[in-house]
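Notes from hallway chat w/ T.B., transcribed later so I don't forget. T.B. wanted the structure written out for a chain they're using in a teaching module, and asked if we could keep both sequence and structure tokens in one place. Agreed to drop them here.
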Amino acid sequence: MIIASLCFYLFAAVMIAASVMVITARNPVHCVLFLILAFLNAASLFVLMGAEFLGLILAIVYVGAVAVLFMFVVMMLDTDFSAIRGGFLQYLPIGGAIGLVLMIELGFAVAAIRAGEGTMAMPMPSDGGVSNTEALGRLIYTNYFYLFQAAGVILLIAMVGAIVLTLRRREGVRRQTIADQVARQREDSIEIRRVTPGSGI
């Protein structure tokens, strides 16, 4: 228990420090690197609590895909980040108020748990000898199968919509037309010339 507590405090402290550095670092590349560090420590906390599926999904999806995508976008876009950071003080009161509300809500949740009224004080159901991932998979693919498939369709529609909204047509750019290429005949592609000897340039 002592080792688990030490690991919890270590991961939590590093995650909080990395989260603070995400919004305070001046270099956007460093912000993304601190974000990856925060995600990895959050995944470690999930594994420490026994939710290994959530930890692995957080590490694979967010660290392996989303954060790396952020890194490529930040490095490829030529954005004036100094102008963006110029409005930091303007939005500071709103951000501080939202943070204060979240801290109050967390305080109420912790007080309810300590009083024995929260969900963490309820007895945990028996797992039946199955792992966390197996139990979650059984639940998703049996009771919530149709909702799971509907969520996938919604994400697919959102992805196609994002592509359609961001697609821009530019003039003077040669584009590939598959129908014209398939409809081409041999006579349109090959021209046979009779060259007599000695008539070259």
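Follow-up for T.B.: Residues 53 and 133 are 5 Å apart (CA to CA). Might be a good example for the class.
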